[in-house]
Amino acid sequence: MVPASLKGFLKYSLIRGSILFLTVVAAIYLTIVIANMGGKVDEIVLSELRMAITQRVNMDPQYKNLPAPEREKLIEAMLENEKKRLGLDTPFFVRSLIYLKDAITLDLGRALYMTSDSGSRLVKNIILERLPATVLLFTTVTVINFFIHLFLGLYLSRHYGSFFDKLTVALAPTSVIPGWFYGILLILIFYTWLHVLPPGGFVDVPPPEEPVAYALSVLKHMILPMAAWIISGFFLGVYGNRTFFLIFSTEDYVEAAKAKGLPPRLIETRYILRPTLPPIVTSFALTLIGSWGGAIITETVFNWPGLGLVTYEAISRFDTPVIVGITVIYAYLLAATVFILDIIYGLLDPRIKVRFG
Amino acid sequence: MSPVLSVRNLRLYFRTRKGVVRAVDGVSFDLDKGETLAIVGESGCGKTSLARAIIRLLPRNVHTYDGQVLVDGVDVMKLSEEGFRRQVRWRKIAMVFQGAQNSLNPVLKVGFQVAEPLIIHMGLSKEEALIEAKRYLRMVGIHESFADRYPFELSGGMKQRAVIAMALVTNPEVIILDEPTSALDVITQANIMNLLKRIKNELGISYLFITHDVPLTSELADRVAVMYAGQIVELSDADSFYVQPRHPYAEKLMASVPTLRTEKKLEYIPGTPPSLINPPPGCRFHPRCPLAFERCTREVPPPYEYKPGNYAACWLVHEGKR
Amino acid sequence: MSRPSRAESLRRVLQDIMYYKSGVAGLLLITLLVALSIYTVIALPVDRAIYLWRSSEIWLDNPRTAAPEWVQFFVGRELPKTVVLDSRAAKLGVAKSSTPIFGTNMKKILIEFSFEYSYDDFPSEVNVFLNAKAAKQLPVLKVIWVKPSGDAITLIETAMSGPNMSLYVTASEHVLRNMVGYVTAKFGFQPSDRCTQLRLLFGQYTPDALRTGDMVIEKGRYRLIIDATVFDEQDDLDAKLVVYGLVHGIAGTDHLRRPLEIALLWGAPVALAFGLTASLVTSLVQMIIATIGAYYGGLLDSLIQRITEIYMVLPFLPFLIMISVFYQVNIWVILVVVIVLSIFGGGIKSTRALVMQIKEYPYIEAARTYGASNMRIIFLYIIPKILPPIVPGLISAVPGFVFLEAALAFLGLGDPLLPTWGKVINDAFENGAVYKGYYYWVLEPSALLILTGIAFALFGFALDRIVNPRLREL
């Protein structure tokens, strides 16, 4: 009985996967072009190189006695060398395609200026080193928010018109203020005024040696950024889910289920929750994606050593390989999330399985 | 033999921004075993509210809900929500909703939904329930392979049949049908009506058939009740009703229905349906009634038994003038 | 039954809006902000505002990072305001006399400033600005500080280093040495290291206080005497004494002594213009793209869908930051970039779904039958139908853009010239507001940002409840 729908499901997954992959490729190429400003960054890098080399040559006692034209030739030769080393001697268009191929295969190359904390120049290492911090903070917050909104939304939809319900509706607009902004206010309250929580960073300085104390210290530093994002998303998230459940619970088949004499709990799970799952999962995935995107500012506010902070540093240093590397990772992450989302949709919505079968 | 369903003075009022809507305002009738009672009326007269009042599907803004609903002699209005759910819903009274298109959960298989009441109310296992469900699907004319399909894979007519099968599955005593065919084309409509007739003859189930389509009811109805502005204005046997309705509104209703064989000048009822928030004083039909006289504007006419078992709520009938 | 006239529908919409009190509140707040913006743009045109914001000399008489005056009510003490005494402005407390020295060309110029100090707290800074008009040789002078207690301390004795000389009294090592010397001579011991110039100038001289450094303010009449000698009878000397307070104005000042109300006022029109323009243009363009794609279908639709998906995968903020860093950015460029990065956003999917539905309506088919062109159908039939659901989204998106601009400014990447709310917060953070507790500096722009955000959110949410029939009774 299953083969037809399984085949349909696989076909659907394959098609979606391919389309997403192409999308990622296009996005990465766009990033490469923009990050290099169509080659302008090369000019900047080149001119900086020229200045550095010129300075080095002029200060070197070895070359002090060289006549000017000789020195010029030397500088040009060293410049050519550097250009070759950094690969700047081929035209930009060709290079962009090479970057593209590397990026897709996750060969992200070396950074121009930045190094990871462990001293490595490899972009991959720089990113991998900081990625866990971001994931730790933002994924935790998103998951916490998801469950809070889900259960409170369900609770409110059952107690429509109650005081807490009206309060949530009234306070929903407070969510328009982004989490990083609440973060600023929280720092003012809990650090500047009350001095009970740290204003940023990952762990106490100097970090405690014992693992449990270390973990607790990290946790202490996570409190404010997490609180900021929980407060920001709270009222709108609960309101949104509650409205959602209310609308879905007025569907005809829910009425029919009630008339059938099914117990209320069963109606909630099988007739309200189940059909609502696709949109809920979608919004969860979108929030997750959004949280990674909003990381940059939050990590700057809280000095949180994650991918967002690295992005900001890379951009201000014009370190193109790092910028491209981060965007590649981000693009893949997003595409993977969308892909998983599509698969979940395929599982939950029977129409898809059948249509492609 | 006592009636299988007895409704006495049922009232259902809603609270809205504009005022209190008196959707069902003191409705009373009896339904015997194996009998089909058709409830007809215009849109907005309260027929659907009546159905929901009987099966206790109330919206959030209920203002008043009282009266008596006796099922097999037991007043189920007194039962708690849980008690009502376990004892009455689907076991005694089942319902086929208007627009079955949306009565089925889109993410569950059809067979499972038909089997569900058996699992919940009768405690059957999933396999046993599915076997029973398939039997009923066959009974309504759906091939049992459709049990494994999802609702979106069925046509409108098939969905309606499936919903009827779902209503039959627990062998209830009464099935309320709320406009079961209004969303279907004429041919499918005829098929469904034939199905209902067959089930009525084979299983002896009582129907409460709610519709605005008067001629449709003539196929099934044993008795006809006419609702106007939340009240029943006439309750007669089918034979009396289709030939000679007593209440002026019922008469106008019948006069607006075209007949196949005879030349008939179609009439219409002037004016608009009354507000259920502020119904007219006295007889609610009096503003549109060509025969209204002074008493009609002051006093509400109670149902008058003009023939055994036949009632009309009209002063003219009271005074023997009709 | 006739269809309701335009006027009637409008009245009904207004009635609906009135029903949601929160929406009305939001609308009122928006009106307030718009009024504020209009007032600001008229009273303080942008060029003048930028000029004021970039200059430093104009604000020389303002205290640095001073809180707003109304803070006093919360603190309970009377906080000092700035005192300015100028020898060129004849006023109570300013006395200037000029006496020739017999037998020479020289003159003695005596400038005496006196003021009553009755505040409960120390001032922040004391500066003396000297301007001399000298033919050849610059004047020499002696600056004496007379405290209410009668102590007269020579702060400094020097020749002027140039025709315009500024004495940063409270920062001068020279002055500190002279004051320490005075105290040592008078009391017989050296005052604690904690006695700064400010403390010694305005604090009560008691042995305990001087030893520990915990000095209490001395209230009373203070005098600053400048005893100068000029070397030509045409020469002249003018001076200005500024005793900087701890509070200033209605909004306080920042680290460059600029009054914050300029930035706070100007932040309003910038935020509103940015937010509204970005939201309006993005929504309209998205609507048109979605409609055209959904209506014409086929290859065009697929193309639009694919572009939308690419957009979804692009990281918005990093791109925006990249472009801000690489290029000359003023607020208009940022606006354009933000719009370009948003046009193929998520709103397209939902609008497209709606248009797909409407496309199948019979009256669209009827219009096609009587020969209406596609453009006509799109603009006269479809767009009016999809406009109502878009409006609430439009309004609700404004705060997002306002905060986006603030975020960029906060990261230091915004328009470098315009004083905006985000920029003020950025300044505050970079100058240690978090560590030093300059609450007003962060809270004032924050409050305005929050106000703007909530105003639009309230109104947008109310509109959403009106336009979306399923949400009506909820």
From TrEMBL, chain A:
<dbReference type="Pfam" id="PF00528">
    <property type="entry name" value="BPD_transp_1"/>
</dbReference>
<dbReference type="InterPro" id="IPR000515">
    <property type="entry name" value="MetI-like"/>
</dbReference>
<keyword id="KW-1133">Transmembrane helix</keyword>
<dbReference type="GO" id="GO:0005886">
    <property type="term" value="C:plasma membrane"/>
</dbReference>
<keyword id="KW-0472">Membrane</keyword>
<comment type="similarity">
    <text>Belongs to the binding-protein-dependent transport system permease family.</text>
</comment>
<feature type="transmembrane region" description="Helical">
    <location>
        <begin position="322"/>
        <end position="348"/>
    </location>
</feature>
<dbReference type="GO" id="GO:0055085">
    <property type="term" value="P:transmembrane transport"/>
</dbReference>
<keyword id="KW-0812">Transmembrane</keyword>
<keyword id="KW-1003">Cell membrane</keyword>
<keyword id="KW-0813">Transport</keyword>
<dbReference type="InterPro" id="IPR035906">
    <property type="entry name" value="MetI-like_sf"/>
</dbReference>
<feature type="transmembrane region" description="Helical">
    <location>
        <begin position="280"/>
        <end position="302"/>
    </location>
</feature>
<feature type="transmembrane region" description="Helical">
    <location>
        <begin position="133"/>
        <end position="156"/>
    </location>
</feature>
<feature type="transmembrane region" description="Helical">
    <location>
        <begin position="214"/>
        <end position="239"/>
    </location>
</feature>
<protein>
    <submittedName>
        <fullName>ABC transporter permease</fullName>
    </submittedName>
</protein>
<feature type="transmembrane region" description="Helical">
    <location>
        <begin position="12"/>
        <end position="35"/>
    </location>
</feature>
<feature type="transmembrane region" description="Helical">
    <location>
        <begin position="168"/>
        <end position="194"/>
    </location>
</feature>
<feature type="domain" description="ABC transmembrane type-1">
    <location>
        <begin position="131"/>
        <end position="345"/>
    </location>
</feature>
TrEMBL record, chain B:
<dbReference type="GO" id="GO:0005886">
    <property type="term" value="C:plasma membrane"/>
</dbReference>
<keyword id="KW-1278">Translocase</keyword>
<dbReference type="Pfam" id="PF08352">
    <property type="entry name" value="oligo_HPY"/>
</dbReference>
<keyword id="KW-0472">Membrane</keyword>
<dbReference type="InterPro" id="IPR017871">
    <property type="entry name" value="ABC_transporter-like_CS"/>
</dbReference>
<keyword id="KW-1003">Cell membrane</keyword>
<dbReference type="InterPro" id="IPR003439">
    <property type="entry name" value="ABC_transporter-like_ATP-bd"/>
</dbReference>
<dbReference type="InterPro" id="IPR003593">
    <property type="entry name" value="AAA+_ATPase"/>
</dbReference>
<dbReference type="Pfam" id="PF00005">
    <property type="entry name" value="ABC_tran"/>
</dbReference>
<dbReference type="InterPro" id="IPR013563">
    <property type="entry name" value="Oligopep_ABC_C"/>
</dbReference>
<dbReference type="GO" id="GO:0016887">
    <property type="term" value="F:ATP hydrolysis activity"/>
</dbReference>
<dbReference type="InterPro" id="IPR027417">
    <property type="entry name" value="P-loop_NTPase"/>
</dbReference>
<keyword id="KW-0813">Transport</keyword>
<feature type="domain" description="ABC transporter">
    <location>
        <begin position="7"/>
        <end position="254"/>
    </location>
</feature>
<dbReference type="GO" id="GO:0015833">
    <property type="term" value="P:peptide transport"/>
</dbReference>
<protein>
    <submittedName>
        <fullName>ABC transporter ATP-binding protein</fullName>
    </submittedName>
</protein>
<dbReference type="InterPro" id="IPR050388">
    <property type="entry name" value="ABC_Ni/Peptide_Import"/>
</dbReference>
<keyword id="KW-0547">Nucleotide-binding</keyword>
<dbReference type="GO" id="GO:0005524">
    <property type="term" value="F:ATP binding"/>
</dbReference>
<keyword id="KW-0067">ATP-binding</keyword>
<keyword id="KW-0997">Cell inner membrane</keyword>
